[in-house]
Specification:
Strands 1, 2, 3, 4, 14, 15 and 18 form a 7-stranded mixed beta sheet that branches. Helix 2 packs across helix 3. 23% of the residues lie in helices and 27% in strands. The chain has a single domain, classed as Deoxyribonuclease I, Chain A (4-Layer Sandwich), CATH 3.60.10.
Amino acid sequence: MFMKKITSLIFILILSGILAFGQDGKSKNYVVGFYNLENLFDTYDDPAKNDEEFLPDGKNKWTEAKYQKKLHNMAAVIRSMAETNGRFHSVLGVSEIENRLVLEDLVSQPEIAGANYQIVHYDSPDVRGVDVGLIYRPDHFTLIDSESIPFDFDSDDIEFALAEEDRDAFKTRDILMAHGLLDGEEFAFYVAHLPSRIGGKGWDLRSRGAEIIYSHAEEMAEKYPGIKIVVMGDMNDNPTDVSMTEFMHGKENPEDVGEGDFFSPFMSMLKAGYGSLAYQGVWNIYDIILVNETLLNAPDGGFRIRPVGKKGFYGVVYKKPFMITQRGQYKGTPFRTFSNGAFIGGYSDHLPTYIVLEKSNN
């Protein structure tokens, strides 16, 4: 037990900064990612939230023991990614969280406490009571300001299926924007959880969500020339869908990315058979990360996205055996928290995704 504690302490010290530089000492590699935490709710009744299912006497019988198991599982995945990458994420966007409290409980888990993660969070009007959030390492990222961007129907290019008289009642997650300095370079990080695909609907709503993000990012680029922008989230669409290709201006190939475009690294990965979640036997990548042209084509000495792994993809869908269902009807799919209404103690129905940013040490 003593040796295990010593080993854990050494690991935390290493990941707190020693390995911020690349193996050759000539570059820095920072990890930026996204993870849908699948209904990370606390056990307390919040009258302002639709949290009845996640109470001790609710449908899911959501006890303190189950909540603590869920926190441990989420931290275990984040820790596993740190062990794989040799460093904790510098910035990690998350979705399906109830409030700030659950993020505070998450970042204090012993598996990841050594990263000293700080939190950016706003309450959203979502009907399910879930929000998006962002955690970051303060030794890598200095937060300047942040904003919660609401959903609206103010579009000239989208014809909405939802009747105008019903639009005021429509509630969904706000979009989070965090603006700051990543190792001295100006960045804006957007975290989104776009409207659901339930019933096969909502392409117009997801397109509007993407349009809102893109418009705000354009304003940031105009206000802060040269700013590097990362957009991440559970888009409830694939990288090849119209919301991501047309309204987010996502491009599959780096050479096709021009000024005002975003590079979409998970588009080629989807076509190659990768997936972050499975539905009715089909793998999708809804957990998408895009970067603007400034970050893609940065000159030497500045952060830019780099390929990860032997296959040359610019993104990673993180998948380890312990995160995957090993038997039964859903064998081979993400090992989730509940299955057919029963608590099975898994992790999430989504796999996390991430990119790596590299900065040469000139």
